[in-house]
Amino acid sequence: MQPAPKSRKRKSDAVEASDDAPAPKKATTTKKKKDDDPLPDLSGIALPGDDDMSVPIYDSCQAVRTKINAHLRKPGVTKAAYGADSEHKIAGNLLTNFLAKKGPTAGNTSSVFYAAYVFFEKLRIRDGKPKNKTREEMEARWGPDGFDREHDSSRGYFCAAGTAPVVDKGGWM
Q: How far is residue 124 from each of residues 85, 130, 135, measured CA to CA in Å?
């Protein structure tokens, strides 16, 4: 004995056979870029040395981490979107590793440190904000080459017995 065939149901009662006109299409909407776009396009702003990744950095690693965390708290900004949309592409795991570090020099050789600094510097220029006091102090302290990105912050130091090296909040020994 075979099962009874299933009856076919109409997909919609909205369209009758006598109604030949197609349903009106929905109007398409386009998203407009706002000035407060969480991930703005900063490609029109050029920094000297950005072509060969030699822009001098005048922020400590901890200051850059603070700026990244503040930016990630904005609505619509995620780590993945921030990494993918920045001019210098940042892998998610590199961003997570950089954010997990602590201290003014920890992460100084990371590409995230450079890319994030350039992003926030371009954002500052776009918004027409002046350099803050800390930035001017860092420029005076580190000179034209900026913060050290060549030497890993975990390197060792020789000290006299009973002394320990101290790094200030600007990364200066």
A: 17, 8, 12
Domain ranges of the chain: 61-145
Say how many Å lie between the first and final Cα of the chain, rounded.
90
Q: What is the mean pLDDT of residues 54-69?
A: 91
Joined together, the tokens standing for residue 96 give 């997570």
Q: What is the pLDDT of residues 103-157, one digit of tens each?
A: 888 888 888 999 999 989 998 999 899 988 988 988 888 888 888 777 666 556 6
Backbone angles phi, psi at 37, to 5 degrees: -55, 130
CA dihedral 141, 142, 147, 149 (to 10 degrees): -140
CB 100 within 8 A of CB 93: no
Distance CA 29, CA 39 (A): 20
pLDDT confidence of 68, banded at 50, 70, 90? Answer: very high
Kindly give, in sequence order, each residue whose CB lies less than 8 Å from that of residue 96, ignoring residues fewer than 6 positions away. 79
Query: What pTM value is reported for the model?
Result: 0.68
